[in-house]
Amino acid sequence: MRQLLAILFLALLFLAGCAGLQPDMAKPTVSISGFKVLPSNGIVPRFEISMRVVNTGRTPLDIDGVVYTVELGGNRILTGVAKNLPVIEAYSEGNVTVSGTPDLFGSLGFFQDMMRERSEAVAYKVDVAIDVGTFYPTIRTTKRGTFSLSEAVGSKK
Questions:
Q1: Residue 41 belongs to a domain with what CATH number?
Q2: What total number of domains does the chain contain?
């Protein structure tokens, strides 16, 4: 009987210790605050994605990496990753900005559609996944919208 009680006591101590290892589980929130076409010297534009990360927990949020994809007119034209991002302190917020240049061949479908449809507005979809370490699940967010092609081209000036 004593051995059974000792084993149960040790098991309870082990479980209590493991529970203390988990950080506060308040899930950070991510919102896409900006998506814009950057001026470019070549034919292929550069894009910038700005995100606002709100850390609602009591431990700093060390962002390991970001994976993002951009679709224009239903065509996936950009997939990228970023690392070496800022730490978002406890109970605070911070901005994360990533940029990239699309693959020229991956963009051909988009350009063909634009030539065929001759549309002024371009629909976009930005998917972002932020890896904040092993104790939190990956944070995912999507933004959809449209931008004016003439404004994007005019931003080169």
A1: 2.60.40.10
A2: 1
For 74, phi and psi rounded to 5 degrees? 85, 0
How would you label 87-111 residue by residue, b for 16+ Cβ within 10 Å and e otherwise?
A: ebeeeeebebebebbbeeeebeebe
What range defines the domain where residue 137 resides?
26-154
46-76 residues labelled b (16+ CB within 10 A) or e (exposed): bbebebebebebeeebebeebbbebbbbebb
User: Under DSSP, is residue 114 helix (H, G, I), strand (E, B) or coil?
Assistant: helix
Taking alpha carbons only, the member of 52, 140, 129 closest to residue 96 is 52
pLDDT reading at 91 higher than 90? yes
Taking the model in full, what pTM does it have?
0.65
In a domain, 16, yes or no: no
Which residue type sits at 30? V
